[in-house]
Amino acid sequence: MSQNTSQIVPVILSGGSGTRLWPVSRESLPKQFWPLISERTMIQETALRAAGPGFAPPMVVTNHAHRFLVAEQLREAGIEGAKVVLEPVGRNSAPAILAAALLVAERDPDAVLWMLAADHAIADLPALHAAFGRAVAAARQGRIVTFGMRPTAPETGYGYIEAGDELPGLAGAHAVARFLEKPDAATAAAFVAGGRHLWNSGMFVFTAGALIAEMGRHAPEVLAAIRAAVAQRVEDADFIRLDPAAFAACPSISIDYAVAERTDRAAVVPADIGWSDVGSWAALWELGAKDPHGNVAVGTAVLEDSHDCLVHTQGMVTALIGLRDVIVVVTPDAVLAMHRDRAQDVKKVVDRLKADARSEAVAHKPEG
Hints:
- With 368 residues, this protein is of the alpha/beta class.
- It has two domains: 3-276, Spore Coat Polysaccharide Biosynthesis Protein SpsA, Chain A, CATH 3.90.550; 281-363, no CATH class.
- It is 32% helix and 26% strand.
- The strands form four sheets. The chain has a five-stranded mixed β-barrel with strand order 6-9-7-8-12.
- A hairpin with a 2-residue loop joins β10 (234-236) and β11.
- α4 (93-105) crosses α7 (208-218) and α7 packs across α8.
């Protein structure tokens, strides 16, 4: 095996639209391309987590419209040699991941793939890499490994994993007893109190060959369609264009439903790494640096007698007086104001705007 094929291949999924972070996140410029957590964009932070000795250049799966943006942002972060795989249409995570696995397997079916979402935040990188080492050991024994985040609260917005016994000879890796859908509040509280349930982070580690084999066993129609899409691909420069007709014929299905919940090879590595899927403005408030009154301010903001608020403003001076637990987001063409408890309802606003055909406010990057 050559040095290149023996390296671990990061696979970054960059297909989400991030509607719960409207009005900053739009269809044409979703949240992974914004610097929401640090001075770097979220996709840059993701790529840098899986860079350095032992890692191959990343493979990013995205759509045609974002191809140059992905390439440009990775170059700005100093990531060289990335391959950008273009999905002709959205078909959820399983086809995207399988396409990457098939491409890598052409060189080395034993190569380890690390599947990452482009828009997640992780605070403790040493803890992440320690957990990743445990996951790689399990993956090299043919396991389909996910990371289970130790819950810090009874979240109802996440799926959960019930961890089983530790796997023999694989310290820190457990069999998966079962995957569970997003629970109600009482069930989530019981999960957290019990100690055996973990948040499903959506990060996976596996060898290319193991994923292909399990996909053939549990989702053969997906494998057939994506094999054809990969076989008939067109490559130019750093872009790999999957065949549109074959890819469009593939069922739309997540990796969880296609393989993880069906396979008897599933494993979970519990981890405490300061993880967030940054799924709402409330999550950004939780992640942000707070002043003595619990406020997070991005941009030019003045907060007077206000507590536990988030202000995110792009240029316009924004002042809050006498408010508590409020989120205010100001862009050049839209303003969002809400209670922090209602952060998950932003998608309802986006859906109403779409229904009202106000597509400019939903889809396009603000001018200026």
